[in-house]
Design brief:
The protein has helices at about 235-250, 345-350, and strands spanning about 10, 15-20, 30-35, 40-45, 50-55, 60-65, 75-80, 85-90, 95-100, 105-110, 115-120, 125-130, 135-145, 150-155, 175-180, 185-190, 195-200, 205-210, 215-225, 255-260, 265-270, 280, 295, 315-320, 320-330, 335-340. The chain is mainly β. A hairpin with a 5-residue loop joins strand 3 and strand 4 (about 40-45). It is globular. Mean pLDDT is about 90; it is low at about 1-10 and about 160-165.
């Protein structure tokens, strides 16, 4: 039986409602879904459940629980609401659980290949191969709704990176495992309507690729020219020290050494903002900063936007001029959501910051 959650529902001058729940880590785009009717679904990855809030911010139930039975979860990582269905994706084993808006279990889809990154498209699913061997091209496929059929979507060269404990057969054991905290990954995301797929391809000439999912073709390849930013050595050493400390706590018998690049990668993040626009975040001299960002239209072209840095990762979506904003109670550490009038979002964010842990 699920433990009853203590929900604190209260109003603030700048919020229509705000609700705290017993989730003790910040919520993200991957762990929050909002239906067209304004109902909110919060994924509790620790307790393997989805907390369901109605349009007024009141909890109406908890969906699923930890287990291996139908509709039960083991390692959930993402939640999505699309076409009157609630999808919960878990990474091990890779499954997509399907529920109705009230939380009734409908079916489960088994991801056919291990390590695939999964996105919901307009007519099925986009799945991307894991980024394991940088000398081999990386591929994306488009699957139909029940994953019974697949077609190739695109192929590209993988980003350069280093790996923990990944060796070719017959290689001698590593004495030191290389650590690169600024891996030049391929960044990827899908449009809010599921029609377009975006790739941020790294390298000496970074490119943004815009894909038409229905017709499985490239609509645009947009190159970027930007000055190279030297790698932040101080930050790199801090990241390496954290890796070593975590290994010590976990009693892992490995030695870790620096394998830092000469320059910072171009792409730091690529995602869909609350207005449905594409947001591209680039690395800067301060790797922890997200201030070097640009808002692009669905064709990948720059556009004017009122999106502020404070709102980048906290304003998840808009419904009828209402913003759905992540919160974190500074006293209890409980995460939550708030629905805030769009014209009061900046005031709310300033009054309710989320302080990063040291």
């Amino acid at each position: 039986m699920l433990t009853m959650l203590c929900i604190l529902l209260f109003t603030k001058p700048d919020a229509a409602w705000r609700t705290d729940v017993e989730i003790y880590r910040p919520l993200t785009r991957d762990t929050v879904a909002v239906s067209p009717a304004g109902e909110t679904y919060l994924l509790d990855v620790v307790n393997c459940r989805v907390i369901h809030l109605d349009a007024g911010g009141t909890q109406v139930g908890a969906i699923s629980r930890k287990g291996e039975g139908p509709g039960e979860l083991q390692r959930p990582s993402k939640v999505l609401f699309r076409d009157d269905k609630l999808y919960v994706y878990e990474i091990a084993p890779q499954k997509i659980h399907v529920f109705d808006p009230k939380g009734a279990y409908r079916t489960v889809l088994h991801v056919p290949f291990r390590g695939m990154t999964v996105y919901k498209s307009v007519a099925g699913w986009v799945m991307v191969e894991p980024n394991l061997i940088e000398t081999h091209p990386q591929k994306a496929f488009h699957f139909n709704e029940d994953l019974s059929e697949k077609q190739p979507l695109d192929t590209w060269q993988r980003g350069k990176q280093t790996y923990f404990q990944i060796r070719k057969p017959g290689d001698p054991p590593r004495k030191v495992i290389p650590v690169n905290p600024a891996n030049d990954f391929v960044r990827q995301t899908i449009s809010a309507d599921g029609e377009r797929f975006y790739l941020g391809l790294p390298g000496e000439q970074p490119q943004l690729v815009v894909l038409d999912i229905r017709n499985r073709k490239r609509l645009a390849v947009l190159p970027f020219n930007a000055p190279l930013i030297p790698f932040n050595e101080t930050w790199g050493q801090e990241q390496l020290a954290e890796v070593r400390e975590n290994a010590k706590r976990a009693n892992r018998p490995f030695r870790y050494g620096a394998d830092f690049p000469d320059f910072m990668p171009f792409f730091k993040d690529l995602f869909i903002g609350p207005d449905g626009d594409l947001v591209m975040v680039r690395y800067s001299a301060d790797p922890e900063s997200n201030s070097n960002y640009q808002v692009l239209n669905r064709d990948g072209k720059p556009k004017k936007s009122n999106l502020t840095e404070a709102a980048l990762y906290r304003v998840l979506t808009y419904r009828d001029d209402q913003a759905y904003v992540t919160t974190l109670n500074p006293e209890s550490g409980a995460a939550g959501m708030a629905r805030v009038p769009r014209n009061k979002v900046n005031n709310f964010l300033a009054a309710n910051p989320i302080e990063e842990e040291e």
